[in-house]
Every structure is written in structure tokens, then in C-alpha cells.
Sequence to fold (297 residues):
Amino acid sequence: MTAPLPPGCRERTIATATLKHMHLVEAGDPHAPLVVLLHGFPEFWYSWRHQLTALAAEFHVVAPDLRGYGGTEKPDTGYDILTLAADINALLAALTEGELTRRPVTLVGHDWGGVVAWATASLHPARIDKLVAIDAPHLLAYLRSLKKAPGQVAKSWYIGMFQAPGFFEWLYRRDPQKMMTKMLMGAAVRREVFTPEEIGHYVAAMADPKTLPCALAYYRALPGALGHLDDLRAPVTASTLVLWGADDPALGVDLIEACRSVVDAPFESQVFADAGHWLQQEKPQEVSAAIGAFAAR
Fold:
């Protein structure tokens, strides 16, 4: 363990059709409607600690470590968007295996977890009833926005830096605590939520020498995603809620309207003032309430 389990939570590792071992933390009644929470970069399940406890009274809440992160398998390949979506489809299949009547499933994703959630909703629509994306665009919407909005190109400068093999790994390992602090606080408005102790949990989760290269592989696979855009053109048919921090320095709120264009279902959005990129940690009560109300309808 790299971080303490929140009260009432439990952890386990499961095998799925795409991964030999996938670590997850969960809470709530295993037979209740399912809410699955997907983290982003440079995080792990712990970024959902507030939602795990807040939603457990009504839902079976599951926060996995994604491919390459935390206690989940770290293969050298499989960081393209199609495989990442297949991972989540396989996870949902494993969590609902043997059920005579499938439970309602709400898939929630933040940052890269949100990008993967969008792709899962496009590619595997039968698995998902509702989608919640938090500071995370559908990949098609993001690429369209880059063409139309020079401001988003500037906000995405770091993606270019991550492309250089070995460069960011070297930069990070010079002082992991300092670099993790810079990454988390640099994209936050409410910086007080990232105490040195909290940041230390993220540093510990990144300590395995394979984790950072795997995490960066998500970004390094992006150029190859251009060849799979046709696979992602199927509209999202799950009811969708998009939540965004008004002052997210990496992903502008204009992306919300771009995302609306890829959804063929009820679409809602909410922008939170005084919040940056790490919305579920900067506004935990508000985000938990929004997810809970949406999933319970």
C-alpha cells in the first residue's frame, strides 16, 4: 500500500480479460448500482478517496489503478486508447460477471481516466448507462479544439515535453517530491488540499521504476491514436455529465461544448468556480454530490 485506505474501504486485486492483475479499492454494497472511478496522471486510486466514502451509502464504488499505475500490471505495451478502453470494458465485465440482471453502471473519469471513459462509452456502449467526465475531453473533441482554439494548443505544451523518451523521467527522478509538488500544485487553485503528506502518497505510488514510463506511455501513444479516430466516431449514447474546474490551466472550459457534439444522449455540464484541474480533490463534497445525484436518477 502507498496510501491509507479510507474508512469503510477495502482493496483487492482481480484478473480481467486484458490484465493479469488489476488493483482496486472499493466501498459500499457489492450488489448496489455500480460507480467506477478512473484516475488520471500522475495519480492512482487515492485521488478518489473522498468520493469512495461519500458515495458508499448508495453505490458499489470502485476505484482501480489503471494499466501501468499503482498495484496494477505494468506491461510494456497497451497504452493506446483502444486497449485502455478494452481494459475498462473487461473490468466492468469482471465486476458484473454472473449477474442475472446487470446493475446500472455509471463510469466516472478524471483527466486521462476521463479520456479513457469517453472512449469506453464510444466503443463499448452496452456496458455503460451513465458517463461522468471531469476535466477530461473526448479525444475527438480535444483534437477538433486544437485546430480551432490556439489557446488550447498553448495549454497543452507539456504533452510535447512528454514525447521525448527519457527526458521527463530524468527530470522527475532528480527530486520526485519537488516535481510531484510542482505538478499537483501548479494545476490547482485550492493548493492547500495538497499537503506534503498527501503529495508523499503520490510520490510513493510512483516509486516503482516502471510506473512513470508507463504513465508517460499514455501521452506517447497519442500520435498513434490519429490512426484510430474512425473507431471513436460512434456517438456516446450514455447520459452524460461533464464537470470542470473554471481555472483549469491545462484543459479549457471551451472543451465542454466540443464534447457536447459527440454525445447523442442527454447532456449536462457544470463549471466550478475557484477550482483548477484536480476538481474531485479541490471540491470533494460538491463533486461527490453531483456524481451521486446524477447516478441515482
Notes: The chain has a mean pLDDT of 95.
